[in-house]
Each structure stands twice: as C-alpha cells, then as structure tokens.
Design a protein that fits this description.
The protein is of the alpha/beta class and 506 residues long. The protein contains 17 helices and 18 strands. It folds into 3 domains: 275 residues, TIM Barrel, CATH 3.20.20.70; 89 residues, Orthogonal Bundle (Recoverin, domain 1); 115 residues, Double Stranded RNA Binding Domain, CATH 3.30.160. It is elongated, with a radius of gyration of 29 Å. Bound molecules: acetyl coenzyme *A, 3-methyl-2-oxobutanoic acid and magnesium ion.
Amino acid sequence: MKNHIKIFDTTLRDGEQSPGCSMNTKEKLELAKQLEKLGVDVIEAGFPAASNGDFEAVKLIANTLNTSTVAGLSRALKSDIDRTWEAIKDAKKPRIHTFIATSDLHMEYKLKKSKEEVLKIAVDMVSHAKNYCEDIEFSAEDASRSDWDFLCQVFESVIKAGATVLNIPDTVGYTVPSEYYDLISYVKNNVKGIENVDISVHCHNDLGMGTANSLSAIKAGANQIECTINGIGERAGNTALEEVVMAINTRKDFFNNYTNVNSTYLTATSKLLTSITGIHVQPNKAIVGENAFSHEAGIHQHGVLNNKETYEIMTPESVGLNKNKMVLGKHSGRHIFEDYLIKSGYSLSKNELNAAFVKFKDLADKKKKVYARDIDAIVREESIKIIDTFYLEDFSISTGKTSTSSAIITLKRGDDVVKEVAMGDGPIDAAYNAILKIVNLKLNLEDYTINSITEGRDAQGEAVVKLKHNEKIYTGRAINTDIIASSIEAYLNSINKIYNDIENLQ
Ligand SMILES: CC(=O)SCCNC(=O)CCNC(=O)[C@H](O)C(C)(C)COP(=O)(O)OP(=O)(O)OC[C@H]1O[C@@H](n2cnc3c(N)ncnc32)[C@H](O)[C@@H]1OP(=O)(O)O
Ligand SMILES: CC(C)C(=O)C(=O)O
Ligand SMILES: [Mg+2]
C-alpha cells in the first residue's frame, strides 16, 4: 500500500517572507489558483494579522479556492487567531495554523517565557482556535533545537486540546537527515494520540538540506511536507516543492509514497512565481533550473542520443518541459556535433565533418558560448556545398491592432528580382506567405522560435525556423536586431538549404 504524502505549500506565507518576494493581492490570488491546479493539498495563503493587505489577500483566496485547504498562520495569540479565522472562515476547507517556539533559546530570549508558560499558551490557543475550526495545525517553532521530551509534552497536550496536525519545524535549517529521522521517530513513539493526527515537517535550507531532511522525515513516518515553489522562503529558503514531489515520484521504489501534485505543471508554476517576484531561479536548480535537462558533455550527449535514461532520471515532459537541451560547447563530442548538423539540414562528407569538428572544438576553447551561427559559419567554410539561391533584397510590412497584416517581399535569385505581396495572421505569417509565392515549394512550418541572445533595447533576436520538405526537416537561423528581419532571413536560410539539397540531387 502506498502512502499519501500531503503537500502543504507555503510559498504565499514563508515564501513571501524572502526579501524581495512580497506579492500584492492580485498576484497572490493568481499564484494560489495555479497552486490549486498543481494539486497541492494545503495552501498557506498568508499571515492575516501581519497587515490589512495580507488579511484581504488571504480572505480573497479563501473565498475563491475550491479543492485545496486554505490555511492562515497566527501567533499563539487570541487576536492573531481571531483575525485569521475572520479571513478564512468562508473557505471550503479552512485551517487555522498557530505556532509558538519550544526551544530554550527562543523561549528565554525571544518570548521571555518559561516552559510551563509556553505549554499553557500552546494548549489555550489551540483550544481557542478549535472553537472556530475543526482543522487546527500546531507548530513548535525551532522544534529541531528543542528539548525532545518537552516537545513531546507540548505535542501530547495540544492533541488533547484539538490539534489535528502537528508540525515539527527545522526553523533555522540546523538539523541533518539522520538526526531529523530520529527526532520524527522519537515524537511518533512518545506522543500519545499521535496516530490520530497528521505529522508535518517544515524545513529550511540554511545548510542546503531542506529537501534531504524532509525526505528523511517521511521515511520516519511524517505524512505532510511543508514547502515552497522554487524553494523561496526565509534566509536560504524552504524545502523546494518541486524537489520533494519529483523525488517521491522518481524514487517510488524507495519511498513507496505518492502526492496529489500533477508534476506536469511544475515548470509553469515555477515560471509564474519568477514572473511575479522577478527573482530568477539559479540555472543549476534541481527540476526547474534552466540546466536541469541540458547536456553539454560529449560522453553524456552520446549516451542520451542512444538512450535518454543513461543521464536523465526523469523525463523533461514529466515536469512540463517540451524536451531536453543539447548544448554544443567545448565538452561536446563528434556524435552530438554530427547529430546537430543532420538536424540542421547539412549533409557533409566524413572529411568535411572531421575538419568542421576540429574547428568547432578550437572555437569552443576560445568562446564561452558557441552559437548556432558560429557552427553555421564553420560548416559553410568547410562545405562550399551550401550556396544561397535566394537573397533578401527588401521587405516592407504593414500591421496594426485592427488591420490585417500584409507584407511585400523582394527576393533576388541570380540576376532576377522577384516581388510578391501577401496577407497573413500577423507580420511574420504575411512575410512567409509572400516568400512561399516566390519559392514555389510545398513546405510545412514545423517550428518557429525567436529568442533574444543579447540584452537591452537593442538586443539581437535569433530566429530559428524548422521547415519540413519531403519528410526532411531543414533548420534555418538568422540574427538581427530587427526581429521581423531575423524571422524572414531564418525562413530563407531554411529554404536555401532545401534548394541546396534539390540541386545536389540533380
Ligand atoms: C518562523 C516563522 O516564520 S514565524 C512567522 C514569521 N513571520 C512574520 O513575522 C511575518 C508577519 N509578522 C508581522 O507582521 C509582525 O511581526 C506582527 C504583526 C506579527 C507582530 O508585530 P509587532 O507586534 O510589531 O511585534 P514584533 O514583530 O516586533 O515582535 C514580535 C512579538 O510577538 C511575540 N511572539 C513571537 N512569536 C510568537 C508566538 N508564536 N506566539 C505569541 N507571541 C509571539 C514576540 O515575543 C514579540 O512580542 P512583544 O511585542 O510582546 O515583545
Ligand atoms: C511558522 C513556522 C512553521 C515556520 O515557518 C518555521 O518554523 O520555520
Ligand atoms: Mg519557516
């Protein structure tokens, strides 16, 4: 029997506590809806007593969501709990989450209270919250640095007072996996009534062990993980949701657990958070980093070309990405280089390929990034076979919000100059339709992308166009600060490769 691990997302509360991650009501609601779509069990929407703005955001989220439980955080203080209930009372599934610190350090210096006082406050406030709501989570802040027996005493008492979820936070990211495993096991074995409540863990990343500690805790019997998208949160952040979900999915053999999260929405959710906060994910971040499914090393690329499982433990599709990325660089080998050239529509002899590969390696030694245009230049040098049939002489585009786009394209073929006009769904489509009238080919546009490869208002846009002709894919590329020009040139580049093949066959 597999066990359900509940995912408690606190991006909107602990995540929002990261410097620079404050969100307004509209942004919080948008993210909350995405988290519900992602399938998280509990969304901690905020700390209603923190500000009127947070109160309104939590209330709006509570009134909008349908399937996820909506939790609001409160100190162990009547006024905080009252304010939280006011915000979440209309939720389909409301939860009051209240907390108080149990470590000697926090009790002495922060709360200035004795153990007995803290125990009483915890019980009284859980009882107070229970008057409002059935679902009550109690967190013992700084649990991992607390006296274990005192912690058990507090937990046993709050269960009697009505707590339905016990959270054992590693508030300052201090613990390590085996110690945390022992702590969860100790609590499980020494708290009466614990079998009737959920055991939750909430880890921070100060030593980079948030995910490892959370996973170790579920091995010890925890059944709720508190986490955030992209791992944002206080200081070095919280356990990253995408990491625990994919670890549980990927290592079913080890954990024998499942979550309700639809992992194919992970990338979209991560990107939504980045677009709201403006805080980018590091490229080597597990699951959602730009390099998480990229390969640059030749030995790896060769393995992946033969069987992706050689170097990919999960598929890019399973996290909502289209495909992996093969980066051509100084560590790449002949197999991937040849594969790239074939997919780009080049047909080189063995000797040409070898010579181009040597030049590519020399260039990669000098440049940090080798772009497609660099490889095009190398290949063109090596293979005089690719001769442009068509040159772009001129273009003129007319487009607007309410008018249909039209394009006039002038191409040169040898000494002939041909001009055509066409309409289209947008300027690029109009331009491509005009070119098609001139080149007289039956083509299928398989893919079109435009990316900026430099920064600023004068950024260079690289257009990549994949055309299918007679079952073969031809990739055209072009770079220009004018993205319409680069789009037209990339299309022509692809067409010239097709013509090149046609002429070679004759
Ligand atoms: C580990 C965590 O992430 S805990 C959550 C942390 N999140 C936040 O703090 C964000 C929201 N916080 C806030 O907006 C503000 O801190 C507020 C509104 C909650 C309180 O603001 P203020 O009243 O100005 O107090 P301030 O933040 O300076 O100090 C905290 C007070 O709460 C007390 N306190 C701290 N934790 C708790 C608790 N769990 N239960 C009861 N009281 C607590 C402190 O002892 C201190 O009390 P004092 O004012 O009597 O000395
Ligand atoms: C409020 C609690 C759960 C918390 O964020 C922590 O202890 O880190
Ligand atoms: Mg926290």
